[in-house]
Specification:
Layout lengths: L1 E4 L5 H12 L4 E6 L4 E6 L7 H5 L4 E5 L19 E3 L2 E3 L3 E7 L6 H14 L3 E3 L17 H14 L3 E5 L13 E4 L7 H7 L6 E4 L6 H13 L5 E5 L17 H8 L4 E3 L1 H5 L2 H13 L4 E5 L17 H18 L2 E2 L2
Helix pairs in contact: 3-4, 3-10, 5-6, 9-10
This protein binds phosphoenolpyruvate and manganese (II) ion (MN).
The site of manganese (II) ion (MN) has 5 residues, from loops.
């Protein structure tokens, strides 16, 4: 339920209303936006008598929220959420690039790629230390050593780092990671989501291979209901009957999500296509559809990559892609963070 307050209310009147509602055991979020002040109520709102609330002086209107996601709902928070990652902004009209290899392979590899993507305009470095692989015999990532190399690369380049967590017991190891990624396969790992909800750290939440937009938002809700409101949603393609591409990029999810939620939405054109030559056209399409940024796999030697070489761009191809984005960003009124 949302209660829209009159603009000229007095603090004393608001305090009285908050006190009364808190006695009903409801969670409340007060959002002072540019246009209005909104009080969101989460919990069993059937105990609330709408007519009584409407009769209160400072109340403009009251609406019940039909959707099961509340904190993530744009009706609760009309303005875009802007997430600040060490000074780099995501959301609210900004366009942010995250780039780097699928997995960290060596000190030289991650540093070389980081320096190159930074010079092209990447605001953050991605790189997997713990890799979810279909085969138990495939390279599983350098794990703790990979995290260490990522931290060293951050020190050298100043780029904030984004890396995937797969295990609740690893949370302490991720204490100095700037953005924790929840991969597609763990989008509904609810115990992990609950623990991440206790942190005050940005979470990049990827859509599951077979999950609906509503399920993605409910997973964001798991994290937000624990108190962590710093969620970046990621459309990374879903599984369909098509076999030419690794997944099918659901471009319509971008404007839909932007309508349904205030959270920023980035697109992963690498995992959604699986084919490096499709990364540029799909990146441009994602920007045109209103994405707040892109997360792209870049490798200094794609043909020898230990993971996802076929979808990885060379640094040169990444530079060319960034150059092509400008016209589109101008057309959609987005401000590049580079
Ligand atoms: C990744 O980003 O390296 C990854 C494994 O992505 P996804 O979870 O989208 O498959
Ligand atoms: Mn990958």
């Amino acid at each position: 339920m949302v209660i829209i307050l009159k603009q000229n209310h007095e603090q004393r009147q608001l305090d009285n209303l908050l006190k009364w509602l808190s006695e009903l055991n409801l969670k409340m979020t007060l959002v002072k936006g540019e246009q209005s002040t909104i009080l969101g109520l989460i919990g069993d709102t059937s105990v609330v008598d709408i007519d009584m609330i409407k009769a209160i002086d400072i109340v403009e209107s009251v609406k019940r929220i039909q959707e099961p996601f509340k904190a993530a709902n744009r009706k609760f928070h009309p303005d875009d959420t802007i997430i600040d990652v060490a000074g780099r902004k995501i959301g609210g009209g900004n366009f942010t690039l995250v780039a780097g290899p699928c997995s960290i392979e060596s000190r030289e590899q991650i540093l070389d790629i980081a320096v190159k993507v930074k010079s092209c305009g990447a605001a953050m470095l991605r790189g997997g230390a713990f890799k979810p692989r279909t085969s138990p015999y495939a390279f599983q990532g350098l794990r703790a050593e990979g995290l260490e190399l990522l931290h060293e690369t951050k020190k050298e380049t100043g780029l904030p780092i984004v890396t995937e967590i797969m295990n609740v017991n690893h949370i302490d190891m991720f204490a100095n990671v700037d953005v924790i990624q929840v991969g597609a396969r763990n989008m509904q790992h609810f115990e992990l989501l609950k623990e991440l909800g206790r942190l005050n750290k940005p979470i990049l939440l990827k859509r599951g291979l077979a999950n609906t937009i509503e399920e993605l938002l409910m997973s964001a809700e798991y994290i937000m209901s624990g108190g962590n409101k710093n969620i970046i949603l990621c459309e990374r393609g879903i599984r369909t009957f098509e076999t030419y591409t690794r997944n099918t990029l659901d471009l319509s999810a971008i404007p839909l999500l932007k309508e349904l939620t205030h959270l920023p939405v980035v697109v992963d054109p690498s995992h959604s296509t699986g084919i490096s030559r499709l990364v540029k056209p799909m990146s441009l399409a994602a920007a045109a559809a209103g994405a707040d940024g892109l997360i792209i796999e870049v490798h200094n030697d794609p043909s020898h990559a230990l993971c996802d070489g076929a979808q990885s761009l060379t640094p040169d191809a990444f530079a060319e892609l960034v150059g092509s984005l400008n016209n589109i960003l101008q057309a959609v009124g987005k401000n590049p963070v580079y």
